[in-house]
Amino acid sequence: MPSFYEDVIKNDARFNSAKRVADPELIEPVTRAAIANILQDARALGIELMVFETYRSQARQQELFNQGASKLRVVGVHHYGLACDLVKAVAGEPSWKGDFSFLGKLAHDHRLIWGGDWGDPSVHAYVR
Questions:
Q1: What is the DSSP code string of 89-102?
Q2: Helix/strand/coil (H, E, C) string of 100-118?
Q3: Phi, psi of 53, deg, nearest 5
Q4: Which tens digit of pLDDT belongs to each residue from 7-39?
């Protein structure tokens, strides 16, 4: 049985890289389609988003943890192609300014969990 993680991610040259990876091809195909729909829906709202990070190695996760940018020492779903970070695109550059609650609604509309929900016991993972 094919495995996206085994067949694609583990064979990618960036598997152990400590650098940020923003390649949508390293997102599992069903999740990638949902993210493409989120980007399109945001654009219809007049909000331009960009994919900031997709795959994340353990080395990158450790770096983020050491910098205090993440509370997770061990990489989670980013490592398996099941997550990506979306940010606003302002003049082609990433921006974290302003309200992102719209993104939570769009994620939920497409049966994904929004990062702003992590740690909320009332939010349950969706089952496909």
A1: EETTEEE--S--HH
A2: CHHHHHHHHHCCCCCHHHC
A3: -150, 135
A4: 999 999 999 999 999 999 999 999 999 999 999
- Model-level pTM? 0.88
Rounded CA separation 47/64 (Å): 27
Asked whether the beta carbons of 82 and 112 are under 8 A apart, the reply is no
Q: Are 53 and 84 in contact (CB under 8 A)?
A: yes
CA atoms within 13 Å, Cβ hemisphere of 123:
14
User: Taking CA 112 as the corner, what is the angle to CA 109 and CA 113, rounded to the nearest 5 degrees?
Assistant: 110
Give all strands of the β-sheet with 93-95 in edge-to-edge order.
49-53, 85-90, 93-95
